[in-house]
Design brief:
Length: 417
């Protein structure tokens, strides 16, 4: 089976789902299949890496069983319009490469960038091939949950446009995989047959991501961090749905605790804003670092005694932050500032791995950090529980096998055995 796969990013760009794409491709190939991956060229990376991939259009890996076709678009993301233009141009480039690809058996689309789902439908029709649609984000909610369009007719139009794109992707696909039970329920309510949808939760490879002892963690030396202090970390995307300001606001009120520091490791469209926000408030106990190489993920997520997951109110309608499992696999206690009725908040409670808070509340976040700091034995136990929870419930092999089985099933639509 030869799979034509579309993804929003791939290594060396580090995003929340990078490890998921790498693991899935690895397991598909190790199951005897081939993959053609079409993805944007790395963008949120160093200038050196960005310039390198301007010239690299195609890569061949796994002895020819993986072909990576990258699309480079030189456009900034400083405004909503420029981001939309870049997204559109990327989609056009990815579509052209997808249409040109030959000897494909099945297509795997993706909900991001927002036009890729409908584009995958178009390509599947042109090539008369079955399509699996991966809904890692709900497009309509994603377009409005960023907060760029806050209210009024523009928000309604944006939401309606997102629903239009969703409907094309849902109705035009042969099978839908969502990462959340909430997404599945929503789709069934919207008229999608239940037997067309499967929930496959995001996973973490607990053989790769492990707790690293503080004395062995070289990032403390790289970042010049005092190993004796208590650290709270936020690692990941600095985008519009992540209200990281509440962590900075909480940190400002915790400056009196001399051996407590906040470490933010991330990149994204709001990185400069976050940096300016820290400087404007003159916060002394927050340090900001760029994302580190993927192979150092265990070291990054082992920096903090506590890891924080942050999402604005309503964000759970749009997606599930897969980095949560990475944090747990590294043995971090968790403070989640997320919709309280979300699957993420429930996982924190079920696994007894931390404190689940409502979103957008810096005061409650401050109190939760104090609780963790003052009860270090309990915090350590939360971390142990977190590791145990993901090992038991979010295995890589189980999840990727479900994807492979789904791809093999819908391949039969072409009459192939």
């Amino acid at each position: 089976m030869r799979v034509l796969m579309f993804r929003p990013s791939h290594y060396p760009e580090i995003a929340g789902g990078t490890h998921l794409g790498i693991d899935l491709i690895d397991d598909i190939i190790n199951s005897g299949h081939e993959v053609v991956l079409i993805t944007p060229a790395p963008w949120r990376v160093s200038e050196e890496v960005k310039n390198k991939y301007k010239e690299i259009k195609t890569e061949i890996q796994y002895d020819g069983r993986l072909t990576i076709r990258r699309v480079y678009v030189a456009a900034n993301e400083k405004s909503l319009i420029s981001r939309a233009i870049r997204m559109f141009l990327l989609t056009v480039g990815m579509a052209i490469k997808g249409i040109k690809e030959k000897n494909i058996d099945v297509i795997m689309g993706h909900s991001m960038p927002v036009f890729i789902g409908p584009t995958s439908v178009l390509i599947s029709r042109i090539k008369k091939l079955p399509l699996l649609y991966l809904e890692s984000d709900v497009v309509s909610e994603s377009l409005i949950s960023t907060g760029v369009v806050k209210s009024g007719i523009k928000r309604k139009l944006m939401y309606s446009f997102g629903k239009f794109l969703e409907n094309i992707s849902h109705k035009g696909s042969d099978y839908i995989v969502t990462v959340s039970s909430l997404f599945k329920e929503r789709n069934i309510e919207n008229g999608i047959p239940e037997n067309k949808i499967e929930v496959i939760h995001n996973w973490i490879d607990t053989n790769k991501v492990k707790p690293i002892d503080r004395q062995q963690n070289f990032l403390f030396d790289r970042f010049k961090l005092d190993r004796r202090k208590f650290y709270v970390t936020y690692c990941g995307n600095l985008g519009l749905p992540q209200n990281v300001e509440i962590l900075i606001d909480a940190a400002k009120e915790l400056e009196y605790i001399r051996d407590l520091e906040i470490v933010i490791v991330g990149n994204g469209v709001r990185k400069d804003f976050i940096k300016d926000y820290i400087e404007r408030l003159d916060v002394k106990n927050v340090q900001l670092f760029p994302l580190q190489p993927l192979e150092e993920v265990s070291y990054v997520y082992s920096l903090g005694d506590v890891g924080v997951v942050i999402g604005k109110s309503g964000t759970s309608k749009n997606g599930f932050p897969s980095k949560t499992w990475t944090m747990m696999a590294a043995g971090q206690a968790i403070i989640s500032c997320f919709d309280i009725d979300s699957e993420l908040s429930q996982a924190v409670k079920d696994g007894k791995c931390g404190i689940a808070l409502e979103p957008d509340n810096s005061e409650k976040l401050k109190k939760a950090i104090i609780t963790m700091y003052e009860n270090k034995t309990n915090t350590q136990q939360f971390g142990l529980n977190a590791r145990e929870y993901v090992v038991k419930n979010y295995s890589r092999k189980v999840a990727t096998k479900k994807y492979i089985s789904a791809l093999e099933r819908i391949r039969y639509k072409n009459g192939e055995k």
